[in-house]
Amino acid sequence: MFYDIISTLNPELLIYDGFQPWAASHASSLNIPSVHLITTGAVTMSHFLHLFHVDEIKCDEFRFLPIHCHDNHEMRKFVEMCSSANEEEVIDIGVLCFRSLHLSKSFILINTCIEIEDKYIKYLSLLTKKEVIPIGPLIRETMDDDEHEEIIEWLQKKEESSCVLASFGSEYYMSNKEIEEIARGLELSNVNFIWSLKFPTGVNTSKEEAMPRGYLERMKHKGLVVKGWVPQAKILSNKRICGFLSHCGWNSVLESLASGVPIIALPIHLDQPINARLMEEIGVGVEVVKGENGEIKGEELAKALRKVVMVGKKSGEALETSMNSKAKELSERIKLRGDKVIDGAVDKLLQLCKGKN
Predict the structure, then answer these.
(1) Domains detected in the chain
(2) Which of 33, 91, 122, 353 sits most deeply, having the most CB atoms within 10 A of its CB?
(3) DSSP H helical ranges for the chain
(4) For residue 70, what pLDDT is reported?
(5) Environment class of residue 338 by beta-carbon count within 10 Å: exposed (0-12), middle (13-18) or buried (19+)?
């Protein structure tokens, strides 16, 4: 079907990602130039290529970032999942991914930026033997949203740099025990917070039922618990926000750093543990220490929050930490660069289109 679609449309150019690794082959057979857009970080893609032992890569070890699978529950689960798969299937996945990158015409695009991953972008270019062009952070523009106006109104009543946003993506739902420990950690930390609490489709649990008994009343002046989606990028760009308690999905990482907000990392699966380690490495995040089996502990969460949000003992005001300063500096560097890199990428894409004609 895909072949029929592009043969009918005959586009000047095709941009595809890792979820359509077969797209480049179809485009090539029709003489349509195609470019791979990597939607994860460069460190994740580099590590992925090593994990699957792709023969084309002649390098014995993963460089730079220490990925300690033995002391991280989420990384252990990911490696065990890969190890339990049929060996031929694992190799096929790795080869398919590498071939997809190899078929990208002349260069590869990636949703990251040199301010965050300069050495990993260069390393990925070395591995793939192609120019890797960072075009990120690609972030959806914030829009006025009357539906969530009460959240912004609540936030506006707080002091600058005094609040944390807690949100864990849309693909994982916390267990009752995890919700209880996160609630306890937020309370112990004494920070102001907005918490986006999500449930699976069809589950009609209210936030009152999900929270520990008396929690919402007890925390009514410190925290706002919202059931469902919140305008994350808009909240992160607000000056009252000084930390992001996040699962460390790549898009969430980019939104946070573009807004100059450090990350309290609570990774769950896939690339998230690697992203969390990257945030620690560049000094704009701290990972919450979990139990041996990946269990969340309220005390450890509170410790991590206090490293990012330093609360004054007398007045309860939030004081700026080194992580806040580094995150703001990183954001300013991204803004100063502007659209130069994207403009350069567009020029290269236009050249590919001209080459087709």
Answers:
(1) 1-136 (3.40.50.2000), 149-332 (3.40.50.2000)
(2) 33
(3) 2-9, 23-29, 42-51, 73-84, 87-102, 114-128, 149-156, 176-189, 207-210, 215-218, 232-236, 250-258, 272-281, 298-308, 322-337, 340-356
(4) 41
(5) exposed
In 3D space, the residue among 270, 273, 251, 268 whose CA is nearest the CA of residue 65 turns out to be 273
pTM of the model: 0.88
DSSP letters, 109-135, are EES--HHHHHHHHHHHHHHHTSEEEE-
Among 102, 78, 95, 84, CA closest to 24: 102
Please tell me the distance from the alpha carbon of residue 319 to that of residue 161, in angstroms, as a whole number: 8
What digits encode the pLDDT tens for the residues 186-231? 999 999 999 999 988 878 889 999 999 999 999 999 999 999 999 9
CA gyration radius for the chain?
22
CA dist 204 → 169, 178, 199, 200, 209 (Å): 19, 18, 8, 9, 10
Residues 98 and 93: their CA atoms lie apart, in Å, by 9
Q: What is the pLDDT of residue 53?
A: 54
Backbone φ and ψ for 162, nearest 5 degrees, come out as -125, 0
pLDDT confidence of residue 316: 44
Which pair of structure tokens corresponds to residue 215? Answer: 């929690």
What is the model's pLDDT at position 315? 43
* Cα distances (angstroms) measured from residue 263 to each of 169, 179, 214, 274, 357: 14, 19, 28, 14, 47
CA distance 305 to 299: 10
Q: What is the DSSP letter of 66?
A: -
Integer CA distances (angstroms), 43 to 125, 345, 350, in order: 11, 21, 28
Which residues are paired to 164 by β-bridges? 193, 243
Answer yes or no: are the C-beta atoms of 41 and 275 closer than 8 Å. yes
Residues of the chain with confidence (pLDDT) below 50: 68-70, 87, 90-91, 312-316
Among 101, 94, 104, smallest CA distance to 49 is for 94
